[in-house]
Every structure is written in structure tokens, then in C-alpha cells.
Design goal:
This protein starts with 7 loop residues before the first helix and ends in an 11-residue tail after the last helix. The protein is an alpha/beta fold.
């Protein structure tokens, strides 16, 4: 018998006779959409056995449903819900409100007020008979997956399913697969100069999970956390959800400017500042470490997509320079591999390994993506990961250069592109008035081009700017989008654009 449940117990309290209770239970399930049109009901024998009823009671209920058109019987096939009388409308029920905690209310309010698409304007209504242009999106769409070594990755997955399957059924440390943590530690020692050990590494379902959990562990309500301005809004939400006070850290052309802040937590992206792309100089890195030492503060270093470096001398991460074990280093594979692979990690100070492991054991006692963790460990150990990185650096470097050159040539009068030695995002400051920027965004969208307004990342008002993600688009689409934006600006300058500005 197929899986089948109706609220028989509820209706048995209302009706003395069992056939009436069954009739009303099935009838209500049909109206509520739980038994969809065309569904085959269990046979009278099966349903009688399932609910400890007589077959006569089930037959009588079916006969009543059939007489009223709720079901129909096909000889030799069974009894089916009648399509013509199927209704998904449910009866109104009194709902008891659930009172959230202070933390729950903050999370709900934050996500409602700062949705990821809050900075996206809507296109002007297209006139009837006019086909809107195909959309070219410079929003952060992930990596260019066409060049991903699929065969090599499948081989690693197959290995994880066979040779590595013993560990898939064994008890696993909440910190994640040991072999992957060892592979990450070896990679960081070699590629970043970080003297990491597997015991210091904890795996997460993406880097934001690590940021959120660490914020909960380290920040009391009302305490200050220093954030770069602009910065990734996920960090802002994590601090606000914990009841922390967000303190904007001033930025200049070299990155975060060190101050004598009164705070116990600092978030920074020194390898490639998000979103501006600025690389924090060595001297400033030392200043931040000295501040943390004086204040007994913790620095959370997010090494966002700095694996993709096109030029400049790579500088040591804060974690590599840290002599007091007070820096948390966070990395992720969602950019270097593919966006659906939700594996992030944190290299923790030794004094934090036990608290983080305890928190992970509470939230996620069995780590997610265990098969993918084993496969990624294999992929890294066999050299596939670093071969893939080298190939992607060459490809993305050429694409970034082509996009930057075309932007400066076609739209140099509109945007000043920030220099960037690394990363998959280009930050461009607007050179005209804020009002003209909003008109341009709308005109570009009506031409089928969308990009991220950098205001989404700002903690305080600043110069209008745009963020252009380029990694996920073919070069032809990258350049076509620039031509469309140039056409949009030409229309504005010539007085031909009459679009209506709409914001969400």
C-alpha cells in the first residue's frame, strides 16, 4: 500500500460511526489538497487493514465519496480522486502566534529589511509588442564552470564512495573530515605561509556559517565590532543579529585605517578587500595586530577569493604574521571550485578550537557534505585542486584585463575603476552626480544590463559606485554589456531616455 494518512482520529471524535469519520477525513484531505487530483486511493482491503476498520466501513465511505463526485472507480484499476472537484482551498484556521526570542526578532527584522536584492531596481515596463533585451547580469554569479575539471572531480567522488566509504559510516568529528583538514593545512602552509595544523581547522557549510557562529561565541550584546566600510553585508547581519554594535572602520586608497578602537572583535579582508579590491599594506597589517594585542581583541580575517591573483607581490596573511594566536583565518571553496560546493573553513586560535567544536556539535553534530569533503581531500592530495587554480588564474586574469580595458575605453567618463591585483569583482566609482547614477542604473537595466549597487555594502553614505562580477560571463557577453551601458548613457545625454525611475 502506498503512503497514505488522513486525520481519522480527529473525525472519529466528531462522528460516532467509523464510515462517517473516514468519509469526512478523506473528503477534507481532498479539499485541502493533501490528496491531489488523479491520485489512486488504497484498496478497501489495504485501507481497512491500515486503520483497523472493517472492509464494509471503508466500502461505505468510498460509496458516499463516489456518489458525491469526490472519487471515481475504474474497474480493474482502483479508486481515484476526481480531478474536476479537486480544490486546493483550505479552510481558515485560527493560528496561534509564536513569540520569538530577542535574537529571533532581530534576525527576522534584519533579513526583511536587508534582503540581497534590495539594491536592485526594476525595469521600466516594456511597451506591448516590444521584446525586452536578453539580460546580461554582472551580479556575482559565481565562477566560470565550463572549464571545471569535471572528470577529475567525478573520479574523486567515485573514490570517496568506494575506497573512502568506511569513514562515511564512522563517527565523524563535528569539525569535519580529518583528511580534508589535513589537506587544507598542508595547502595553507605551502601557499599562504600559515603554520596551520589539522587540529586548528574547523569545516563549515560555507564561510558565512563560520562568521556567524564565531560572532555568536565572541560578541556579547552591546559590545562593539569593527567592520570595514564598505564590507560584505553578511558580516553586518551576523553582528547585528547578536546584538552587537557595528562600528564602521574608515577606508582609504590603501584599505582599512587603523585606529585605537575600543572593541573586542575586528573583521577584515586584507588579502583582497571586499568589495573594493584594495590589498592592505604590510605596515597596516602590523598595526592591526598591535592594536589587537593592546586590546586583547580577536581579528577575523576573511581571505575572500584572493587565490585569484593577477599581479603584485603576495603579502603574508595576518594569520601568518600573528605571534599571539589571536587571529581567525577564514577561507572557502565556493569560488575556487564551484558555488554549489558549500565547504568553508576556519583556522582557529588554539584557545578557540574547543569552544567552536562544542558549538558545531550543538548546531551540526554530523558535518554536512561528508562525501564531498572526502572527495575534496582526494582532489587536493592528488594535485587536482592546484592545477585547477593555476588554469583559472590564467583564464580569469585574461578576462579581467579584457573587461577592464573595455570599461576604461567605453565608460571611462562614467566610472573610475579601482586597481585590483586579485579577485573576481571589479569596484567602479561613479564620476557624476548621485541623481545621474540612479538614472543610469535604470537606463542600463532597460537595455538589459544589471549590476550591483555598492551602496548595498556601505555602512555610511559614500561616493556612488558599482560592483561588476565578471567570472561567470563569457567574454562576448562581458563586452556586449559594456556596449549596452554605453548606449544607455548616450541616450541619456541626447535626451532620448524617458524611463521612469523605480526602486524597491
Amino acid at each position: 500500500m502506498p503512503e497514505f494518512t488522513v486525520h481519522l482520529e480527529t473525525y472519529s471524535k466528531k462522528y460516532t460511526y467509523k464510515y462517517l469519520a473516514l468519509y469526512h477525513a478523506i473528503r477534507a484531505a481532498i479539499h485541502e489538497g493533501n490528496l491531489p487530483e488523479g491520485m489512486r486511493l488504497p484498496s478497501t482491503r489495504e485501507l481497512a487493514s491500515h486503520y483497523s476498520l472493517s472492509r464494509g466501513s471503508v466500502s461505505q465511505a468510498y460509496d458516499m465519496l463516489n456518489a458525491e463526485g469526490y472519487v471515481h472507480t475504474v474497474v480493474g484499476s482502483g479508486t481515484f480522486v476526481t480531478a474536476s472537484l479537486y480544490s486546493p482551498v483550505k479552510e481558515a484556521k485560527e493560528v496561534r502566534p509564536i513569540v520569538l526570542s530577542r535574537w529571533g526578532r532581530r534576525v527576522e527584522e534584519l533579513m526583511a529589511a536587508t534582503g540581497e536584492a534590495a539594491d536592485i531596481i526594476r525595469p521600466t515596463v516594456t511597451p506591448p509588442g516590444v521584446t525586452p533585451p536578453e539580460l546580461i547580469s554582472y551580479l556575482d554569479g559565481g565562477t566560470w564552470e565550463a572549464l571545471f575539471p569535471v572528470a577529475e572531480w567525478r573520479s574523486a567522488l567515485a573514490w570517496a564512495e568506494t575506497a573512502g566509504n568506511n569513514s562515511l559510516t564512522a563517527t565523524v568529528d563535528p569539525a569535519g573530515d580529518k583528511e580534508l583538514r589535513e589537506a587544507i593545512a598542508a595547502y595553507l602552509r605551502r601557499a599562504r605561509g600559515i603554520a596551520a595544523e589539522a587540529a586548528q581547522i574547523c569545516l563549515f557549510n560555507g564561510s558565512l556559517q563560520a562568521i556567524t557562529l564565531l560572532t555568536q561565541l565572541l560578541l556579547e550584546e552591546g559590545e562593539a565590532a569593527i567592520l570595514e566600510d564598505p564590507c560584505y553585508y553578511g558580516i553586518t547581519r551576523a553582528v547585528a543579529a547578536c546584538g552587537g554594535v557595528v562600528v564602521p572602520g574608515q577606508m582609504d586608497e590603501e584599505g582599512l585605517v587603523s585606529r585605537d578602537w575600543t572593541a573586542k572583535l575586528l573583521f577584515v579582508t586584507p588579502g583582497r578587500q571586499f568589495p573594493t579590491g584594495v590589498v592592505l599594506p604590510y605596515a597596516r597589517r602590523r598595526e592591526l595586530l598591535a592594536w589587537a594585542s593592546r586590546k586583547s581583541a580577536v581579528i577575523i580575517e576573511d581571505d575572500y577569493d584572493s587565490e585569484f591573483r593577477w599581479g603584485g607581490r603576495p603579502l603574508e596573511p595576518l594569520k601568518a604574521l600573528d605571534q599571539e594566536d589571536g587571529v581567525v583565518y577564514i577561507g572557502s571553496f565556493s569560488k575556487t571550485m564551484f558555488s554549489a560546493l558549500r565547504i568553508g573553513y576556519a583556522v582557529l586560535p588554539r584557545s578557540l578550537t574547543r569552544p567552536v567544536a562544542s558549538a558545531k556539535a550543538l548546531y551540526e553534530p554530523l558535518p554536512a557534505s561528508r562525501l564531498e569533503q572526502r572527495a575534496l581531500a582526494r582532489f587536493m592530495r592528488t594535485g587536482g585542486y592546484e592545477r585547477h587554480l593555476r588554469r583559472m588564474r590564467r583564464y580569469y586574469g585574461a578576462k579581467q584585463e579584457a573587461f577592464r580595458r573595455a570599461m576604461e575605453q567605453e565608460l571611462g567618463q562614467l566610472f573610475k575603476l579601482r586597481p585590483a591585483d586579485a579577485g573576481l569583482l571589479i569596484y567602479a566609482e561613479w564620476l557624476h552626480s548621485p541623481e545621474e547614477y540612479q538614472v543610469f542604473r535604470q537606463a542600463a537595466l532597460d537595455q538589459g544590463v544589471v549590476f550591483r549597487d555598492a551602496a548595498a555594502y556601505r555602512l555610511t553614505p559614500g561616493i556612488p559606485a558599482a560592483c561588476f562580477g565578471f567570472a561567470h560571463l563569457a567574454e562576448g557577453k562581458l563586452l556586449e554589456g559594456i556596449h549596452r551601458m554605453k548606449s544607455a548613457w548616450d541616450d541619456i545625454q541626447a535626451g532620448r531616455y524617458r524611463g521612469i525611475i523605480k526602486t524597491t
